[in-house]
Amino acid sequence: MANHQSAIKRIRIADKRRTYNRQNRKRLTTVIKRLRNATSKDDAQKLLTEAVALLDISASKGFIHANKAANQKSRLTKFVNQMA
User: How far, in Å, are 4, 25, 29, 33, 45 from residue 78 at the CA level?
Assistant: First the structure.
């Protein structure tokens, strides 16, 4: 265990950030999974707008890299456009 006050504070901060980052990443993966499992194109279109917004927010906040967000947006858009 940490002995210094500053080290104790850093542990507290790291724990808060870790839980915040995990929640946001989990929310993003859940939306992407729901989009991949969508059956109709209308539902997929609605989920796509939600997923793209979350990907943009995640990239701007640093949860994921900007290039990864761009690649995922491209793949998901392609997936929705190919739906019948």
Answer: 52, 22, 18, 15, 11
